[in-house]
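Shipment paperwork, digital attachment
Item: protein structure file
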Amino acid sequence: MAKGRESKPHIGIFGRRNNGKSSFINALAGQDIAIVSDVPGTTTDPVRKSMEIPGIGPAILVDTAGIDDTGELGAKRVSRSLSVLRTVDLAILVITNNAFEEYEKKLVMAFRDHNVPFVVIHNKSDLVPLSGKLKERLSMEFSAMTLEFCALHPQNVEEVIAALRQTIPETAYSSNSLLGDLLSYGDLVLLITPIDIEAPEGRLILPQVQAIRDILDNDCTAVVVKEKEVDALLKVLQPRPKLVVTDSQVFLKADASVPKDIPLTSFSIMLARHKGDFENYLKGTPKIAELKDGDRVLILESCTHHVSCDDIGRMKIPRWMSNYTGKKLEFDVVAGLGDTPRPITDYSLVVQCGGCVITRKQVIGRLKAAVDAGVPVTNYGMAIAWMHGIYQRAVAPFTKMEKAGESYL
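Attachment content:
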C-alpha cells in the first residue's frame, strides 16, 4: 500500500462502511475531495487528501475502508485501514445511529495500542440524533469527545475543527528546534556536505536544508563546506564553530579534521534525536557488535529514490556492517512505509534512516513492532558512527545531562 510521506500531521478517518466517512471529509474541507456513494465499500484503500485546518495548518486526511468489510478481500482492506494507525497523529471515528458496538470497541483498542488520540463524530444526525446517554458513556469509558454532525447539512464545522485542535498533540504540527538547545545567539555552525553521486542535481539534500534553516531561525551563522575544504577552512575560520554537523558518510574525515574540543555530530543523528526513537537507538546501536553469522538486518528508508551504485542504505551500510562484524549477514531493505518482507522477529537489528520526509509519529510507528518484540533498533548515522569508532563523540552533543561532563552512555 502506498502511504503518504509528508511531514505534515496525518488525521485518519475510521468507521464502518456507509457511515459517511468520505462525506465527512468533504464537509470538513468544504469541497468534494473524496468520492461519495451510497454503495457500501466505495472507499477500498486508504486515500490521502491534503487540506488546511485552521489552528493546525496543512494536514493530510486519510480516508480508510470500512472496518466492517467482509470476505477475503474485505479482510485485507480492514488490515490496510488498521495499518494506517502507524502513521496518523489523530483518529476520527465516524459512527451513525448511536451504534457503538464491537467494531467500534476494537478500533478504540487499536487507537490506544498505537497511542493515537481520537474524536468520535456521530454522523447523519439529521436522521438519528446523538443520544445523550451514548455521549456520556463514551466520555466515561473512553474519555472520548463525541460530537453530533450532519455531513449533508454541516452546521458545526467550526466546533469539529475546534475539537480536532484540542485533541491532536501539538507536537504533530509544531516542531521543536533541531539544534536550538545546543546554540546561543550568534554562534557559528559548520556543516560538512559532500557533493557526490547521491547528491540531487543543483541542490542540497533535505536534512542539510533543514539544518541551515534551523540555524538561521536561532539567529546563528551557518557555514557550508565540502569535506575536501574542511582542513583549510578551519585554519582561518573565526569564530571557532560551536558545533560541526557532517554527512555520516564522511564521519572519519570529519573526526580527523575537527579538533576534539569542538562538538561533532551528523545530520542523521540530529534527525534521530529530533524525530526518531532516540532512547531506543542509544540502547540498540551497541548491539551491532553482537551480530552473528546468519543474522538478518532490516534497513528502513522513509523515502523512495533512484538507487546509485554506492547507495547508503543498500550498499554502504551493509558493506560497513559486514566488514565491522566479520560475519556473514543477510540484509533486507524496505523503502517508503510499506510492510516488511518477513516477521519482525526474523531480524536481529533494525536500522532506520533519519526520516527527514516523514513525521515523528510515522518514525515511531514504523519501529513499534521491533521495539515491542525486543528487536534492537538504530539509526543510519548512529550505526555508521559506531562502526567507524566515533560513536561516543557523535552522540555526545545530544546525550549530555544537566551535570556537566556526564552523559547517558
